[in-house]
Write a structure and sequence with these properties.
The complex is a heterodimer of chains A (about 375) and B (about 325).
Chain A (H helix, E strand, L loop, with lengths): L1 H19 L6 E5 L5 H25 L4 H13 L2 H26 L7 H18 L5 H30 L3 H21 L24 E2 L2 E2 L1 H18 L1 H11 L1 H6 L4 H28 L10 H11 L4 H25 L5 H21 E5 L7 H6 L1
Antiparallel strand pairs in A: 1-4, 2-3
Chain B lengths: L1 H29 L7 H19 L2 H25 L4 H25 L10 H6 L14 H5 L4 H19 L1 H11 L1 H6 L4 H27 L12 H11 L4 H16 L13 H21 L21
Helix pairs in contact in B: 1-7, 1-10, 1-11, 1-12, 2-3, 2-4, 2-10, 2-11, 3-4, 3-10, 7-8, 7-12, 11-12, 11-13, 12-13
Chain lengths: ~375, ~325
């Protein structure tokens, strides 16, 4: 609606401004009316295809056949039952952490700290895995699950508290907490939790059988937990009062305050939940996949989760889908290492290019280019589609 | 006494990559852009600078390619956030993931083609990166080792800091830059070409970050290529901008203080204070977090972040 008014304004004073400005740009940018979901989706698909093409060109420049490489990736990730299982295993922490990031981002709280929250969740859970193996399996696993959530929540509450109280920049704060968390693992690995049975490299002992998550359909049960969490987060965001509050705070803190919401409490609560989710991802990864606490328990998942959440428009089901796509990329790229001796970092490069293209593409969702001279408003044409 | 001198000169060396990153980010933020891609731009500069040096043996080409690679990363960022008005936070983060991935990927690609499976800079270039020995000055007691015995990069970074201090606060273009960062609409109305100022300064900042990456790869790591060569220094640099209060000259001090934190573990005798190594490794990050909190509590209007940082400038909405 404002686009229309603006265009009228442009038409009225265009003669005036033409006289005033010597060089008038032949293109200008105008806001476009809301684009339909379908066209938005198509635009995103086009952006992703463009990214894959750019990635292919890059490989071509290095002297590889991009088609063969992409086939290697797909085959490596989905070629047989075993590789499927590995891909799903990679997907589990990614889905859960992306949900964590999604909650915070909905509130426009830049939680870059999922990485650290994953680690703290894993650390808290590991304590029980190492020192309470005498407990029966189910209660032990449940306690580990809760401990993971608590560890992550505490690590998420820390920046939330300072943000709510002093407006401390959460982007950098959560980031610093990632590095601190990483060194917490190193501390336990080299000190109190060092496996006495390990010779040479210090490491933490392998979890006892009772502290390992069971398998379901050949993959650790974490995939079921992840799916349940997808549904829960969707319902929470869409149908609960909390979800509504998160959206309002994200849109404008002033509006939220004016509507009588306790913004501080909402920030703290949401970040506690976001951190708890990431912590659960850490517990699931340590107990179900690594079966120990490794330095690589988060392994960059907390950062990839940001790309996944953003690509999925902060929609939980979209997150599940995008995380699957990204896990195929990750698993497939690891095969590139064995077959071509290329770094598995190709996944990171391609993910980066994909998000660049999508971020660039989003421009065309919101704006369109209009020829300045003699242009008629194309608004009606856009409406027709 | 001599331990203290060694600690200080070691801190300067450790702080130099941070200084480059901080200076680059200051220029970016002055243009109104919070660029979280510093780590990525440094990684790209590290890779390009190292490989240029490895292949050509020329220091000048190393510096040139490091600068260009950092600027290339910044160009992607500028295209997305200035022209296409994408979200600055997400774009910067993506640039970091992309840049670090690309740097590691190319490093591995180069490694495969070597016989020894290591990438080492040519001996002649390595020697040029060693501490300078200035006749007469480097031999002075105390001052010699404190001031006159660093490598070329260190002096380059200080020169850039001083130049930027003059450029931002005292030059005509610097005034335009500050105007754009504070209020792009007003700057535009005053006839400043906002888009051009933003592009130029984002590229300049990115290039400076790239030089910092090259230092990390070529000097800090002793001339041997390592994966993840920047290792989080870029993130500390982003936080250091706050510590330096957006002032390039103050960034010099900040970078060296943080350099000191990262090398402190070699200078505190275990007999005096026995702390785990992990604590020392986390120390720069802990201190940065504390700085963030304290500076937010003491928030002053003077020496603050440029007002338009983080916001896209949409000309038609003035």
């Amino acid at each position: 609606m404002s686009a229309k008014r603006q265009e009228q304004g442009n038409r009225n004073d265009s003669g005036f401004s033409r006289a005033l400005l010597k060089r008038e740009p032949w293109l200008h940018i105008a806001k476009r009316p809301e684009m339909g979901k379908k066209r938005g989706g198509l635009l995103k698909m086009a952006s992703i295809l463009l990214a894959i093409a750019v990635g292919g060109l890059f490989m071509l420049a290095l002297g590889y056949n991009p088609l063969t490489l992409y086939m290697t990736i797909i085959n490596g990730a989905l070629g047989n039952a075993e590789s499927w299982r590995m891909t799903i295993r990679l997907m589990i922490p990614l889905v859960i952490s992306s949900l964590a990031v999604c909650l915070a981002f909905k509130m426009r709280f830049w939680n870059i700290g999922a990485e650290g929250q994953i680690i703290m969740g894993a650390v808290f859970a590991t304590y029980f895995a190492l020192y309470h193996t005498s407990w029966p399996r189910l209660p032990l696993l449940l306690v580990m699950f809760v401990a993971g959530a608590v560890g992550g929540a505490l690590w998420g509450l820390l920046p939330a508290f300072f943000k709510a109280r002093f407006n401390t920049n959460e982007t950098l704060f959560t980031l610093m907490l990632n590095y601190i968390a990483l060194n917490v693992i190193v501390y336990f690995r080299d000190g109190p939790w060092k496996d006495p049975g390990s010779s040479g490299f210090p490491k933490i002992a392998r979890f006892d059988k009772v502290a390992q998550l069971p398998k379901l359909a050949g993959v650790q049960i974490g995939w079921l937990i992840a799916l349940i969490l997808v549904v829960l987060v969707y319902v929470y965001l869409k149908y609960s009062k909390h979800g509504y509050e998160i959206k309002v705070v994200g849109a404008s803190q002033a509006t939220a305050r004016y509507a009588g919401m306790n913004v501080r409490r909402i920030i703290l609560r949401t970040m506690a939940i976001s951190g708890a989710l990431a912590g659960i991802a850490g517990m699931v990864q340590a107990s179900g996949s690594d079966m120990t606490l490794a330095e690589s328990v988060a392994g960059g998942v907390g950062f990839t989760a940001i790309i996944v959440a953003w690509l999925a428009n902060l929609n939980p089901f979209g997150i599940a889908l995008t995380a699957f796509f990204f896990s195929v990329l990750e698993k497939g790229s690891s095969v590139m290492r064995s077959s071509y001796n290329l770094s598995a970092e190709f996944a990171a490069v391609l993910q980066g290019i994909i998000l660049f293209c999508v971020l660039g593409g989003e421009f065309f969702l919101r704006y369109r280019l209009v020829r300045r001279s003699g242009s008629k408003p194309r608004e009606t044409q856009v409406r027709e589609v | 006494m001599s331990t203290l001198i060694r600690l200080i000169s070691h801190s300067v060396l450790a702080g130099t990559p941070l200084l480059f990153g901080t200076l680059g980010e200051i220029v970016n933020e002055k243009a109104g852009h919070l660029n979280l891609g510093v780590e990525g731009m440094m990684a790209m500069g590290a890779c390009a600078g190292f490989m240029a040096g490895y292949l050509s043996g020329s220091l000048l080409l190393s510096l040139l390619f490091a600068f260009l690679a950092g600027a290339l990363g910044a160009l992607i960022y500028a295209l997305l956030t200035v022209t296409l008005m994408a979200d600055q936070n997400v774009t910067g983060l993506t640039l970091t993931i992309f840049g670090v991935g690309l740097s590691n990927f190319i490093g591995q690609y180069m490694l495969v083609n070597t016989a020894t499976n290591t990438l080492k800079l040519p001996e002649a270039l390595n020697n040029r990166l060693k501490a300078l020995s200035i006749p007469g000055l480097s031999q002075l007691p105390v001052a010699g080792s404190l001031l006159f015995s660093y490598d070329l990069f260190v002096y380059l970074s200080i020169a850039i800091a001083l130049l930027l201090g003059w450029y931002i606060n005292h030059s005509h273009s610097g005034r335009n830059l500050r105007a754009v960062g504070e209020n792009p609409a007003a700057a535009d109305a005053a006839g400043i070409h906002v888009t051009r100022v933003k592009y130029l300064n984002l590229l300049l900042g990115g290039g400076i970050c790239g030089l910092g990456g090259a230092y990390a790869a070529m000097v800090s790591n002793g001339g041997v290529w390592l994966s993840d060569t920047v290792g989080g220094r870029g993130w500390i640099a982003v936080a250091l901008v706050i510590f330096a209060a957006w002032n390039p000259v103050r960034a010099i001090l900040g970078a060296y203080v943080f350099g000191a934190f990262s090398v402190l573990k070699y200078y505190v005798p275990k007999s005096v204070l026995s702390l785990p190594n992990a604590f020392y490794d986390a120390l720069p990050f802990i201190v940065t977090a504390l700085v963030l909190v304290i500076s937010s509590i003491l928030q002053k209007r003077k020496n603050a972040q440029p007002a338009s940082v983080g916001l896209s400038y949409y000309r038609e909405e003035r």
